[in-house]
Design a protein that fits this description.
The chain is α/β, with parallel strands linked by helices and about 725 residues long. The chain folds into three domains: about 230 residues, no CATH class; about 230 residues, Rossmann fold; about 230 residues, Rossmann fold, CATH 3.40.50. The strands form two sheets. Strands 3-4-2-5-6-1-7 form a seven-stranded parallel beta sheet, with helices on both faces. A six-stranded parallel beta sheet has the order 8-13-12-9-11-10, sandwiched between helices. Strand 12, helix 30 and strand 13 form a beta-alpha-beta unit. The protein is globular, with a radius of gyration of 32 Å. The chain starts with a helix and ends in an 11-residue tail after the last helix. This is DEAD/DEAH box helicase.
């Protein structure tokens, strides 16, 4: 009970104070970042809210609001509603207090969602006062480095242990205190002193006092200048963004958001400037990265999963290049999405759009050549236009690029020639792999022959990690589950139905004839006794009772006709029926049908051919999806579902796939699992789950023939010859 104990308590006290100082200094540094971030983040949120149409409030309130008077009063966005506040909203004729309360509550919900998801982008080429303050605040913590993080963590743990021990050892700090303390307190004090001595010696041996002191100095040093901070940011942007996300409480899965690109490519993309002068929409972090990837790599495939906004990313690239002085751009797409592309470019950018389609397309082409802007055309129409001169077209965008995967098709030859003449190319497809890796290599060859050659004839089979690394210079893919964490849930249910006697009879007839397509739709051949149709009506009725909209997908027009007739006769469904959307419906008409379906109040049903409506149309008004039969290509189903489960969806989405036991549906589901696993391995994941030549090479024709033959054998029906899918 002498000097040694008092010295130990003193050393412990100093170490405790140093640990608390580091925690306080770190807290100040974090506070400085948050203070600098808040106004920038608030401004980004406001920009985002100012792009959300006021009609979205109906989605949040499940269609209960009537917003015509609000829009007529000049409040056209959610941001405008929030800015107006309750007093101004009450002044709008026909808007009562209850509507005002519901409207503001819905707007605040959307605002909260935007607050959670909006990304802050720091433009190194256009520094502003606010962003400079944020970069300088971040620079302090980035410059302190990982050692600072280690010091803060060690300080927290040490402080937690030392604090109680020092309180317990307080009597040992003075001779009189120790004499006045009772026997039990003296014993506890001495035991605490021993623990403190052990902690201090351990810390000193590990060099912790010096680390804590240096960390405090680093955290208090500040940036030497704003220029130095911006230069460091440009060199180490990934560290800044990672730290920013961590402090904001929303650390992203950076690797997934960047498509698991190799670091050298990802870093080059991160430092690519993205000009938003001509853009009227804010980008999410992964979308900005996608646009930068296209700019940095010049000729690429953007293979993002359906629903992630590939069109927005393409528009961001177009807007950037326009700001740099490029004047002519070309978008090539299926006729079904021509209207959608025109709408999106007009709404989300300041770029001029010219539709190069229809009988006057050559006059329109001449006008586009003279005035510039974005020409939007179809694959077939492109063949009739003269090839551009070198450097004339700033960017060629090819939507649904898997349409040109066959190098011998005329449309593919035309796209390849245009791509060769353009300095930049952006191919977009959510399903570049489909069945064969070789088809993907054909797309890559149009953009970069060296990368295509490095894949080899069967190069994809060496494993998806190597495959993704090889194609990284030209290929970027992200998945919804990785980057759209704000999406509501997606629930998939396989509805297995026992065929009725009438269904069985129709099915046996189709098998006997060897007609694969008839086998697939036999469950609807006797509508009055169809087990699948009965279940479909139940699903639609349940959705209607809950005020939900439903999309019904089938490959077959006659199946959709059966469904339409059944729903029309079913008064219990009480839902307006729209469609069917088929390949024969014009693009403009398709878009009007989807708009009408979205605009109707209450329950509604949209009928659509899966291969026609699965491309380019946004159906997020629907929260229930019914797929009448399994599809030959699993990616077709993925595309169709993604039309409803995408950005803008505010409700959970339920997907019901109607399947019949014991026949073609069951065999298709089993066989197609291999296709799905292959696609996941190469296009979605960074490691191979299973990849064999058989999984790659199974074609639609082979699958159909195999199923027909197996079913004929199972049922003892060998007459007829198997047909192939048409």
């Amino acid at each position: 009970m002498g000097r040694d104990e008092r010295d130990t308590v003193t050393r412990g006290t100093r170490l405790h104070e140093a640990a608390r100082a580091v925690a306080a200094d770190h807290g100040k540094a974090v506070g400085a970042v948050r203070a600098a971030l808040r106004p920038i983040h608030d401004a980004a949120v406001k920009r985002e809210l100012d792009t959300i149409p006021v009609a979205r409030l109906q989605d949040v309130t499940e269609g209960r609001l009537r917003l015509g008077n609000v829009e007529g009063g000049g409040l056209r966005t959610v941001g405008a509603v929030l800015e107006a506040g309750p007093y101004r909203l009450r002044q709008i004729p026909g808007v009562g207090q209850r509507t005002v309360d519901q409207m503001l509550a819905a707007a605040r919900r959307l605002s909260e969602a935007v607050h959670e998801t909006v990304a802050v982008h720091l433009d190194v080429d256009r520094p502003e006062t606010g962003t400079t303050a944020l970069v300088m605040a971040l620079h302090v913590m980035v410059e302190a480095g990982p050692e600072a993080r280690r010091a803060v963590d060690r300080a927290a743990a040490l402080s937690e242990r030392l604090g109680p021990l020092l309180a317990e050892a307080r009597p040992a700090a003075g001779r009189i205190r120790m004499l006045l303390a009772g026997q039990e307190k003296r014993a506890r004090a001495l035991a605490a002193v021993d623990e403190i001595r052990s902690l201090v010696e351990e810390a000193e041996q590990a060099g912790l006092p010096e680390l804590l002191a240096q960390t405090s100095v680093d955290l208090l040093r500040g940036s030497p200048s704003d220029v130095a901070a911006w230069v460091d940011f440009e060199l180490r942007s990934a560290e800044y963004y990672s730290l920013l996300a961590e402090i904001a409480g929303r650390p992203p899965d950076t690797a997934a958001a960047e498509g698991f690109l190799p670091e050298e490519i990802a870093e080059r993309v991160r430092t690519q400037h993205l000009d938003d002068t001509h853009r009227r929409v804010s980008l999410r972090g992964y979308q900005a990265f996608g646009a930068r990837f296209a700019l940095a790599q010049r000729k690429v495939i953007l293979g993002d999963e359906m629903g992630l906004g590939k069109t927005i990313q393409a528009i961001a690239v177009l807007a950037h290049l326009a700001a740099e002085g490029q004047s002519h751009f070309m978008v090539v797409c299926p006729a079904s999405v021509l209207v959608n592309w025109t709408r999106e470019i007009e709404a989300r950018s300041a770029l001029r759009v010219t539709v190069l389609h229809g009988p006057d397309r050559h006059d329109a082409f001449a006008d586009w050549k003279g005035r510039g802007g974005v020409g939007v055309t179809t694959f077939d129409a492109l063949r009739g236009f003269p090839l551009p001169g070198g450097g004339e077209v700033g960017l060629l965008v090819v939507d649904e690029a898997h349409s040109v995967k066959n190098p011998r098709a005329k449309r593919s030859e035309t796209v390849a020639l245009w791509t060769e003449r353009c300095e930049r190319g952006l191919f977009m497809t959510g399903t570049p792999m489909e069945n064969r890796a070789a088809e993907f290599r054909n797309l890559v060859r149009m953009l970069d022959a060296k990368v295509a050659d490095s894949l080899g004839e069967r190069g994809a089979l060496v494993g998806s990690v190597a495959f993704r690394r090889t194609v990284a210079p030209v290929y970027l893919r992200r998945n919804q589950e990785d980057v759209l964490t704000e999406l509501p849930s997606l629930q998939r249910t396989d509805e297995w139905e026992e065929l009725s006697a009438a269904d069985e009879e129709a099915y046996r007839e189709a098998v006997r004839a060897g007609n694969f397509m008839a086998m697939r739709r036999a469950a609807y051949a006797r509508p009055e006794r169809s087990a699948k149709l009965a279940r479909l009506r139940e699903i639609v009725q349940e959705a209607g009772e809950n005020g939900q909209k439903t999309v019904v997908f089938s490959y077959f027009k006659d199946v959709l006709a059966v469904v339409e007739a059944a729903l029309a006769a079913d008064s219990a469904a009480d839902a307006a029926v729209f469609g069917p959307l088929t390949g024969g419906v014009t693009a403009a008409r398709r878009q009007r049908i989807v708009d009408d379906f979205a605009g109707v109040q209450g329950p509604a049903v949209l009928l659509a051919q899966v291969q026609a409506a699965g491309v380019g149309l946004n159906m997020q008004a629907a929260s229930v999806v019914v797929i009448c039969e399994p599809q030959i290509k699993p990616t077709i189903e993925h595309q169709a579902v993604a039309r409803a489960h995408r950005m803008g969806q505010v409700r959970p989405v339920r997907v019901h796939r109607l399947l019949a036991t014991g026949g073609v549906d069951e065999r298709m589901v089993t066989m197609l699992e291999k296709k799905t696993r292959l696609f996941d391995a190469y296009a979605r994941r960074s490691a191979v789950a299973e990849a064999t030549p058989d999984a790659v090479d199974v074609s639609d024709t082979e699958l159909a023939r195999r199923i027909v033959e197996e079913e004929q054998t199972r049922l003892g029906l060998t007459n007829g010859s198997p047909t192939t899918p048409g």
